[in-house]
Amino acid sequence: MDSAPHDSTPAAVRLRCAQAAQGGRPVLRGIDLTVAPGEVVALLGANGSGKSTTIKTVIGSVPLTGGERELFGVPGQRFRDWHRIGYVPQRTTAAGGVPATVREVVATGRLAQHRLLPFRRKDRVAVDAALAAVGMLERAGDGVADLSGGQQQRVLIARALVGAPELLIMDEPMAGVDLASQQVLADTLREQVERGAAVLLVLHELGPLAPLIDRAVLLRDGLVVQDGPPAGSGHEHGHDGDHHQDHHHTEIRQGLLT
Ligand SMILES: Nc1ncnc2c1ncn2[C@@H]1O[C@H](COP(=O)(O)OP(=O)(O)OP(=O)(O)O)[C@@H](O)[C@H]1O
Fold first, then answer.
1. Torsion angle, CA of 256/18/201/130, rounded to 10 degrees?
2. How far is the CA of 72 from the centre of ligand 1 (A)?
3. 228 lines ligand 1 (CB under 6 A)
4. For ligand 1, is residue 56 a contact (CB within 6 Å)?
5. Composition bias, kind Basic and acidic residues: at what positions (predicted)?
6. How many angstroms separate the Cα of 198 from the Cα of each of 20, 21, 133?
7. What is the helix (H) or strand (E) element at residue 105, kind and residue range?
8. What is residue 248's three-state secondary structure?
9. For a FRET experiment, which of 30, 51, 156, 161 has its CA 20 to 30 Å from that of 87?
Protein backbone atom coordinates (compact mmCIF):
# COMPACT_ATOMS: atom_id res chain seq x y z
CA MET A 1 0.00 0.00 0.00
CA ASP A 2 2.89 2.30 -0.78
CA SER A 3 1.15 5.30 -2.25
CA ALA A 4 4.33 6.95 -3.57
CA PRO A 5 4.44 6.38 -7.32
CA HIS A 6 7.80 5.42 -8.79
CA ASP A 7 8.95 7.97 -11.31
CA SER A 8 9.14 5.40 -14.09
CA THR A 9 5.71 3.90 -13.41
CA PRO A 10 2.84 5.92 -14.82
CA ALA A 11 -0.25 6.48 -12.72
CA ALA A 12 -3.15 4.10 -13.36
CA VAL A 13 -5.43 7.16 -13.60
CA ARG A 14 -4.55 10.80 -14.10
CA LEU A 15 -7.08 13.57 -14.62
CA ARG A 16 -5.78 17.10 -14.98
CA CYS A 17 -8.23 19.97 -14.70
CA ALA A 18 -10.94 17.64 -16.07
CA GLN A 19 -14.15 19.35 -17.09
CA ALA A 20 -17.33 17.60 -18.19
CA ALA A 21 -21.03 18.31 -18.67
CA GLN A 22 -24.20 16.28 -18.10
CA GLY A 23 -27.40 17.21 -19.90
CA GLY A 24 -25.71 20.32 -21.31
CA ARG A 25 -24.83 21.63 -17.87
CA PRO A 26 -21.22 21.87 -16.60
CA VAL A 27 -20.76 19.29 -13.81
CA LEU A 28 -17.00 18.83 -13.44
CA ARG A 29 -15.24 22.17 -13.22
CA GLY A 30 -11.57 21.17 -13.14
CA ILE A 31 -10.87 17.88 -11.37
CA ASP A 32 -7.30 16.81 -10.61
CA LEU A 33 -7.18 13.16 -9.65
CA THR A 34 -4.34 10.63 -9.59
CA VAL A 35 -4.46 6.95 -8.68
CA ALA A 36 -1.01 5.39 -8.45
CA PRO A 37 -0.42 1.68 -9.13
CA GLY A 38 -1.56 -0.29 -6.09
CA GLU A 39 -3.26 2.70 -4.49
CA VAL A 40 -6.83 2.67 -3.15
CA VAL A 41 -8.63 5.99 -3.62
CA ALA A 42 -12.17 6.74 -2.45
CA LEU A 43 -14.22 9.50 -4.09
CA LEU A 44 -16.57 11.08 -1.56
CA GLY A 45 -19.04 13.95 -1.76
CA ALA A 46 -22.67 14.91 -1.47
CA ASN A 47 -25.31 13.78 -3.98
CA GLY A 48 -24.73 15.59 -7.26
CA SER A 49 -21.16 16.68 -6.46
CA GLY A 50 -19.88 14.82 -9.54
CA LYS A 51 -18.52 11.50 -8.23
CA SER A 52 -20.19 9.26 -10.82
CA THR A 53 -19.43 11.72 -13.59
CA THR A 54 -15.76 11.68 -12.60
CA ILE A 55 -15.70 7.87 -12.83
CA LYS A 56 -17.47 8.03 -16.20
CA THR A 57 -14.90 10.45 -17.59
CA VAL A 58 -12.15 8.07 -16.45
CA ILE A 59 -13.65 5.15 -18.39
CA GLY A 60 -14.56 7.45 -21.29
CA SER A 61 -18.36 7.14 -21.25
CA VAL A 62 -18.67 10.88 -20.55
CA PRO A 63 -16.33 12.99 -22.74
CA LEU A 64 -14.12 15.72 -21.32
CA THR A 65 -15.00 19.26 -22.35
CA GLY A 66 -11.63 20.45 -21.06
CA GLY A 67 -8.50 19.19 -19.35
CA GLU A 68 -6.67 15.90 -19.79
CA ARG A 69 -7.10 12.21 -19.03
CA GLU A 70 -4.45 9.49 -19.01
CA LEU A 71 -4.79 5.77 -18.24
CA PHE A 72 -1.54 3.94 -17.47
CA GLY A 73 0.36 6.86 -19.02
CA VAL A 74 -1.57 6.75 -22.31
CA PRO A 75 -3.78 9.69 -23.34
CA GLY A 76 -7.42 8.62 -22.97
CA GLN A 77 -8.21 8.91 -26.69
CA ARG A 78 -5.46 6.41 -27.56
CA PHE A 79 -6.04 3.96 -24.70
CA ARG A 80 -7.08 0.47 -25.88
CA ASP A 81 -5.97 -1.90 -23.10
CA TRP A 82 -9.38 -2.22 -21.54
CA HIS A 83 -8.57 -5.67 -20.17
CA ARG A 84 -6.38 -3.84 -17.62
CA ILE A 85 -9.47 -2.20 -16.11
CA GLY A 86 -12.39 -3.79 -14.27
CA TYR A 87 -15.48 -1.61 -13.93
CA VAL A 88 -18.42 -2.09 -11.58
CA PRO A 89 -21.21 0.36 -12.51
CA GLN A 90 -23.84 1.61 -10.11
CA ARG A 91 -26.00 -1.45 -9.65
CA THR A 92 -29.25 0.09 -10.88
CA THR A 93 -27.87 0.19 -14.41
CA ALA A 94 -27.39 -3.59 -14.58
CA ALA A 95 -30.18 -5.02 -12.46
CA GLY A 96 -33.80 -5.79 -13.34
CA GLY A 97 -34.96 -8.20 -15.95
CA VAL A 98 -31.67 -9.33 -17.46
CA PRO A 99 -32.36 -12.86 -18.77
CA ALA A 100 -28.87 -14.17 -18.08
CA THR A 101 -27.40 -16.60 -15.62
CA VAL A 102 -24.80 -15.64 -13.05
CA ARG A 103 -22.15 -17.53 -15.01
CA GLU A 104 -23.05 -15.76 -18.28
CA VAL A 105 -22.78 -12.31 -16.71
CA VAL A 106 -19.39 -13.06 -15.19
CA ALA A 107 -18.16 -14.59 -18.46
CA THR A 108 -18.71 -11.25 -20.25
CA GLY A 109 -15.86 -9.96 -18.11
CA ARG A 110 -13.49 -12.19 -20.12
CA LEU A 111 -14.43 -10.71 -23.50
CA ALA A 112 -11.55 -8.26 -23.65
CA GLN A 113 -9.19 -11.09 -22.76
CA HIS A 114 -9.75 -13.59 -25.51
CA ARG A 115 -10.69 -11.28 -28.38
CA LEU A 116 -13.75 -13.15 -29.62
CA LEU A 117 -12.04 -16.55 -29.70
CA PRO A 118 -14.17 -19.36 -28.28
CA PHE A 119 -14.15 -19.75 -24.53
CA ARG A 120 -11.50 -22.13 -23.35
CA ARG A 121 -10.89 -24.11 -20.21
CA LYS A 122 -8.85 -21.33 -18.64
CA ASP A 123 -11.72 -18.88 -19.18
CA ARG A 124 -14.07 -21.28 -17.43
CA VAL A 125 -11.57 -21.71 -14.59
CA ALA A 126 -11.23 -17.92 -14.24
CA VAL A 127 -15.02 -17.48 -14.14
CA ASP A 128 -15.37 -20.14 -11.46
CA ALA A 129 -12.52 -18.63 -9.42
CA ALA A 130 -14.11 -15.15 -9.56
CA LEU A 131 -17.49 -16.57 -8.52
CA ALA A 132 -15.89 -18.48 -5.67
CA ALA A 133 -14.08 -15.30 -4.53
CA VAL A 134 -17.42 -13.56 -3.98
CA GLY A 135 -19.16 -16.65 -2.57
CA MET A 136 -21.48 -17.13 -5.56
CA LEU A 137 -20.17 -20.31 -7.20
CA GLU A 138 -23.09 -22.41 -6.04
CA ARG A 139 -25.48 -19.90 -7.70
CA ALA A 140 -23.64 -19.99 -11.07
CA GLY A 141 -26.60 -21.46 -12.98
CA ASP A 142 -29.26 -19.20 -11.46
CA GLY A 143 -30.77 -16.19 -13.23
CA VAL A 144 -29.35 -12.88 -12.00
CA ALA A 145 -32.88 -11.47 -11.79
CA ASP A 146 -33.63 -14.00 -9.00
CA LEU A 147 -30.82 -12.73 -6.76
CA SER A 148 -30.97 -10.18 -3.95
CA GLY A 149 -29.39 -6.76 -4.50
CA GLY A 150 -26.29 -7.71 -2.56
CA GLN A 151 -25.89 -10.93 -4.52
CA GLN A 152 -26.27 -9.07 -7.82
CA GLN A 153 -23.58 -6.69 -6.68
CA ARG A 154 -21.28 -9.63 -5.92
CA VAL A 155 -21.87 -10.95 -9.46
CA LEU A 156 -20.95 -7.58 -10.99
CA ILE A 157 -17.80 -7.52 -8.92
CA ALA A 158 -16.93 -11.06 -10.01
CA ARG A 159 -17.39 -9.90 -13.62
CA ALA A 160 -14.95 -7.04 -13.02
CA LEU A 161 -12.40 -9.33 -11.31
CA VAL A 162 -12.45 -12.17 -13.80
CA GLY A 163 -9.86 -10.52 -16.04
CA ALA A 164 -7.48 -9.88 -13.07
CA PRO A 165 -7.49 -6.11 -13.74
CA GLU A 166 -4.66 -3.81 -12.67
CA LEU A 167 -7.23 -1.10 -11.98
CA LEU A 168 -10.61 -1.75 -10.42
CA ILE A 169 -13.21 1.04 -10.65
CA MET A 170 -16.38 0.73 -8.60
CA ASP A 171 -19.32 3.12 -8.30
CA GLU A 172 -20.99 2.86 -4.87
CA PRO A 173 -20.30 -0.86 -4.40
CA MET A 174 -21.83 -0.89 -0.92
CA ALA A 175 -25.10 0.90 -1.78
CA GLY A 176 -28.18 -1.16 -0.97
CA VAL A 177 -26.09 -4.21 -0.07
CA ASP A 178 -26.91 -6.43 2.91
CA LEU A 179 -24.36 -6.77 5.71
CA ALA A 180 -23.23 -10.28 4.72
CA SER A 181 -22.51 -9.11 1.18
CA GLN A 182 -20.77 -5.99 2.49
CA GLN A 183 -18.38 -8.22 4.39
CA VAL A 184 -17.76 -10.34 1.28
CA LEU A 185 -17.08 -7.19 -0.73
CA ALA A 186 -14.65 -5.84 1.88
CA ASP A 187 -12.77 -9.18 1.96
CA THR A 188 -12.70 -9.33 -1.85
CA LEU A 189 -11.38 -5.80 -2.08
CA ARG A 190 -8.66 -6.61 0.46
CA GLU A 191 -7.53 -9.57 -1.68
CA GLN A 192 -7.36 -7.33 -4.76
CA VAL A 193 -5.30 -4.77 -2.88
CA GLU A 194 -2.96 -7.50 -1.61
CA ARG A 195 -2.32 -8.71 -5.18
CA GLY A 196 -1.39 -5.13 -6.09
CA ALA A 197 -4.46 -3.82 -7.94
CA ALA A 198 -5.15 -0.08 -7.91
CA VAL A 199 -8.71 0.77 -6.88
CA LEU A 200 -10.85 3.86 -7.51
CA LEU A 201 -14.22 3.71 -5.84
CA VAL A 202 -17.14 6.02 -5.20
CA LEU A 203 -18.42 5.72 -1.66
CA HIS A 204 -21.14 7.45 0.24
CA GLU A 205 -19.27 6.70 3.45
CA LEU A 206 -16.01 4.92 4.19
CA GLY A 207 -17.73 2.40 6.48
CA PRO A 208 -16.18 -1.09 6.62
CA LEU A 209 -13.79 -0.23 3.76
CA ALA A 210 -12.06 2.54 5.76
CA PRO A 211 -8.96 0.47 6.71
CA LEU A 212 -8.27 -0.25 3.02
CA ILE A 213 -8.41 3.35 1.79
CA ASP A 214 -5.09 5.14 1.11
CA ARG A 215 -6.60 8.45 0.02
CA ALA A 216 -10.00 10.04 0.28
CA VAL A 217 -10.85 12.67 -2.35
CA LEU A 218 -13.79 14.88 -1.43
CA LEU A 219 -15.75 16.55 -4.23
CA ARG A 220 -18.03 19.53 -3.91
CA ASP A 221 -19.81 21.14 -6.86
CA GLY A 222 -17.52 19.52 -9.39
CA LEU A 223 -14.27 20.47 -7.67
CA VAL A 224 -11.84 18.62 -5.38
CA VAL A 225 -11.97 20.29 -1.98
CA GLN A 226 -9.93 17.71 -0.05
CA ASP A 227 -7.39 15.06 -1.06
CA GLY A 228 -5.45 13.08 1.52
CA PRO A 229 -5.36 10.10 3.85
CA PRO A 230 -8.76 9.47 5.40
CA ALA A 231 -9.16 10.88 8.88
CA GLY A 232 -8.70 8.25 11.57
CA SER A 233 -6.47 6.12 9.32
CA GLY A 234 -3.36 6.94 11.31
CA HIS A 235 -1.65 8.34 8.17
CA GLU A 236 -2.98 11.84 8.38
CA HIS A 237 -0.87 14.90 9.06
CA GLY A 238 -1.50 17.44 11.77
CA HIS A 239 -1.61 17.20 15.52
CA ASP A 240 -3.98 15.96 18.10
CA GLY A 241 -6.27 18.75 19.08
CA ASP A 242 -6.11 20.36 15.65
CA HIS A 243 -9.87 20.08 15.49
CA HIS A 244 -10.55 23.39 13.86
CA GLN A 245 -7.89 22.89 11.21
CA ASP A 246 -9.92 21.10 8.59
CA HIS A 247 -13.60 20.54 8.77
CA HIS A 248 -13.54 18.43 5.58
CA HIS A 249 -11.62 15.77 7.51
CA THR A 250 -14.40 15.81 10.02
CA GLU A 251 -16.92 15.28 7.24
CA ILE A 252 -14.94 12.32 5.95
CA ARG A 253 -14.63 10.87 9.45
CA GLN A 254 -18.34 11.13 9.99
CA GLY A 255 -18.94 9.70 6.55
CA LEU A 256 -22.11 11.75 6.28
CA LEU A 257 -21.68 13.93 3.31
CA THR A 258 -25.14 14.78 2.12
N1 LIG B 1 -27.42 11.69 -17.62
C2 LIG B 1 -27.56 12.88 -17.01
N3 LIG B 1 -28.27 13.87 -17.59
C4 LIG B 1 -28.39 15.08 -16.99
N5 LIG B 1 -27.84 15.39 -15.81
C6 LIG B 1 -27.14 14.44 -15.19
C7 LIG B 1 -26.95 13.13 -15.74
N8 LIG B 1 -26.18 12.41 -14.90
C9 LIG B 1 -25.91 13.22 -13.86
N10 LIG B 1 -26.46 14.44 -14.03
C11 LIG B 1 -26.34 15.58 -13.11
O12 LIG B 1 -24.96 15.85 -12.91
C13 LIG B 1 -24.72 16.20 -11.56
C14 LIG B 1 -23.63 15.28 -10.99
O15 LIG B 1 -24.11 13.95 -10.99
P16 LIG B 1 -23.22 12.72 -10.51
O17 LIG B 1 -24.05 11.49 -10.74
O18 LIG B 1 -21.87 12.79 -11.09
O19 LIG B 1 -23.12 13.02 -8.96
P20 LIG B 1 -22.72 12.09 -7.78
O21 LIG B 1 -21.77 12.87 -6.96
O22 LIG B 1 -22.27 10.77 -8.29
O23 LIG B 1 -24.08 11.96 -6.98
P24 LIG B 1 -24.93 10.70 -6.52
O25 LIG B 1 -24.38 10.36 -5.17
O26 LIG B 1 -26.31 11.23 -6.48
O27 LIG B 1 -24.74 9.60 -7.54
C28 LIG B 1 -26.04 16.11 -10.84
O29 LIG B 1 -26.56 17.39 -10.75
C30 LIG B 1 -26.88 15.24 -11.74
O31 LIG B 1 -28.25 15.59 -11.63
1. 160
2. 26
3. no
4. no
5. 234-252
6. 24, 27, 18
7. helix 102-107
8. helix
9. 30
The domain covering 13-254 belongs, at the CATH homologous superfamily level, to P-loop containing nucleotide triphosphate hydrolases (3.40.50.300)
> Could you state, in order of their start, the residue ranges of all structural domains in the chain?
13-254
Q: Indicate the residue type of 195.
A: R
What burial letters (b/e) apply to 98-120, b meaning 16+ CB within 10 Å?
eeebbbbbbbebbebeeeeeeee
Would you write out the chain's pLDDT as a tens digit for each of its 258 residues? 444 445 578 999 999 999 999 999 999 999 999 999 999 999 999 999 999 999 999 999 899 999 999 999 999 999 989 889 999 888 764 455 667 888 888 887 876 665 555 667 778 888 999 999 899 999 999 998 888 888 888 899 999 988 889 999 999 888 878 888 888 888 888 998 998 999 999 998 888 888 899 999 999 999 999 999 987 655 544 434 343 334 444 444 444 333
